[in-house]
Amino acid sequence: MDFSDPGRCWPEWKRRFLRYRSASGLDEKAAQRQVDTLIYTMGEEAEIIYEQLTVREPRAADPANNIVAEDRDQTLFNRTIEAFDNYFMPRDNHLHYAVLLGSRVQLSSETNEQFIRNVHELANKCTNWDQEHRNDMIRTRLLAGMTDKELSRELQLNTNITLEEVKQQLRTKEIIANHQKAQLDGVNSVMAVQEEPEVVKRADAVRSMDAKPRTMVNDCEFCGGVHVKGRCPAYNRACNLCHTADTMLESVRLDVELKVNHMSTSRKSMVLMRVNQVVLMMIMFFMCITLRVLV
Predict the structure, then answer these.
(1) Is the CB of residue 230 less than 8 Å from the CB of residue 243?
(2) Which pLDDT belongs to residue 157?
(3) What b-and-e string marks burial along 186-221, b requiring 16 or more CB atoms within 10 Å of the CB?
(4) Is 54 exposed, middle or buried (0-12, 13-18, 19+ CB in 10 A)?
């Protein structure tokens, strides 16, 4: 048991020990053995506390008030438990817990199941109520404090609704909402994958290219310049002379080949023209010499 906060830990620890006492058959053993097991299980600090406790004497018979005398040995364990109750929870205030219960509302981060358990825990601390009144207060607080006001108004239309029916409706509504949310999240995930924009894909491709080490190309065979490998400016371009277009790399090759062919044809024409001029001049020269000889 945690003795740093016994007022909070003792009620839960006591419930667990009483369940162990019944399940193990300890309640059929001698009263003093039950008390010794209780103190030993609580821990070393319980020994010191037990020496300070004042265990009340058994009640005497009171026929006028229909009180039967208590047996000293048979009630020793229960009287010891009462002594620990008084020691660990001397300031237990019924009114304080009743006020807390009356103002309890469901938190935004609190599920319906958690809200139900927390309201039950507060109501169980109101020890002056009988079970029927406690259930009625829990039902009222669940209806007033739940975040789903639409469900609250719907349930209030049934004036004979029980506590169990209110809890069942809260749990069912939460299960349905969780299933719908899971289905919607699954559909949105599939749609997001299927409808991925082409622009995003291209951007990813560019980023992956930028992430790779850059290799420079000098004296490119296509454009004749210097550029990053894979970034040729002549890529997918038409020939500037004949404007013949093609696709992908073939268009670049075609463009360059057309340029070279056009340039070669022009140069050949100029050479032929000059050769013709020289030949013509030589013919005229020889014709002049022949005429002079004849004369």
Answers:
(1) no
(2) 93
(3) eeeeeeeeeeeeeeeeeeeeeeeeeeeeeeebeebe
(4) exposed
The count of structural domains within the chain is 3
Residues 117 and 101 in one domain: yes
**Residue 192 belongs to some domain of the structure:** no
Among 218, 225, 227, 231, which Cα is nearest to 256's?
Answer: 225
Identify the pLDDT of residue 201: 61
Looking at the domain assignment, is residue 242 inside a domain? yes
pTM of the complete model: 0.41
Task: Output phi, psi for 216, to 5 deg.
Answer: -90, 145
Secondary structure class of 195 (helix, strand, coil): coil
Residues 6+ apart with CB under 8 A from 98: 126
End-to-end CA distance of the chain: give it in Å, rounded: 148
Q: Do 84 and 98 fall into the same domain?
A: no
Strands 227-228 and 216-217: antiparallel
* Residue 258, number of CB atoms within 10 A of its CB: 17
Cβ–Cβ under 8 Å, residues 55 and 17 = no
Q: In which domain, by residue range, is 269 found?
A: 218-295
Predicted confidence at residue 210, as pLDDT, reads 56
What's the confidence (pLDDT) of residue 221?
72
Provide block-wise average pLDDT over 10 residues at a time, the chain (295 residues): 82 93 92 92 91 83 71 84 83 79 93 94 86 93 94 93 94 90 73 57 60 69 73 69 47 46 57 78 81 72
Rounded Cα distance between 237 and 252, Å, is 6
pLDDT value, residue 68: 67
Q: Cβ of 20: how many Cβ atoms within 10 Å?
A: 12
